[in-house]
Amino acid sequence: MPELDPEDEKIVILARSARARTQAKEGAAVRDTDGRTYAASTVDQPSFQLTAMQAAIAAALSSGAEGIEAAAVVSAEPLFGEASVHAVRDLAENAPIYRADPSGTVQEVLR
Question: Which of 24, 63, 91, 111 has the fewest C-beta atoms lying within 10 Å of its C-beta?
Answer without folding.
Answer: 111
